[in-house]
Design brief:
This protein has 4 helices and 12 strands. With 220 residues, the chain is of the alpha/beta class.
């Protein structure tokens, strides 16, 4: 049952550092019987640098924090109106390689966007999802003890201007897109519900448990 059931937590707006710590704690303390979880949330404005991030890709952050984190990839921006999906998945139990898992995440976003009549695609050389030459979804993961955390960030209805202060994902001049530029009917709540369902199916879960409130393990 454990490999077929996922807990989905809808968390609203959460500070990045608090959520990152909770993901680390959850992953460090989980065992072979721990159910996988998907966390659905937004972050207040923040830049995050991946493990491969280079300072030269951050040009003018202003007063916004720049957090050096442990996910893969380079610098990106999070803010209100961007859908964050953190995937706390036991990849060994699901028998996914990291590449297979990234492909399934990308595929889920492409399928979601198709329901809004948006044609999108993934790029093997640069993980994420793109509309023509603009990026709409970034993916950054950390795998520890065969389990994933961090996840994806999908631009739905946000202020894209902070992306101009960085080289998004380490690519100078990369332009960003968001869903409401193309389909004005989209809102983050309905987009989240649809994307979670695509993830549930593509990641092979037959059961979904809905949870709200505190996430991760309690303090001892």
């Amino acid at each position: 049952m454990n490999s077929n059931t996922v807990i989905v937590r809808t968390l609203g707006s959460q500070e990045y550092l608090v959520t990152w710590l909770a993901m680390q704690q959850f992953t460090n303390q989980r065992d072979q019987d721990t159910l996988d979880e998907i966390w659905v949330l937004e972050h207040p404005p923040v830049f995050t640098q991946g493990q491969n991030g280079k300072s030269e890709h951050v040009h003018s952050p202003g007063t916004l924090p720049v957090v050096q984190t442990d996910r893969g990839g380079q610098v990106t921006y999070h803010g209100p109106g961007q859908l964050i999906i953190y995937t706390l998945i036991d990849l060994r139990r699901k028998k996914f390689t990291t590449r297979q898992f990234v492909t399934l995440l990308e595929q889920s976003v492409v399928q979601l966007l198709a329901t809004y009549h948006v044609s999108a695609k993934a790029k093997c050389e640069a993980p994420g999802v793109y509309i023509a030459d603009k990026k709409i979804c970034s993916i950054g993961l950390r795998i520890r003890r065969g389990c994933s955390f961090h996840g994806l960030a999908l631009n739905v209805a946000m202020d894209l201007r902070p992306f101009l202060s960085i080289d998004p994902c380490g690519f100078p001049g990369l332009k960003m897109a968001q869903l409401t530029e193309i389909n004005k009917t989209a809102n983050i709540k309905s987009v989240a519900a649809k994307l979670v369902e695509h993830l549930r199916i593509n990641l092979g879960y037959t059961n979904k448990l809905i949870a709200k409130g505190p996430y991760g393990p309690k303090e001892p």
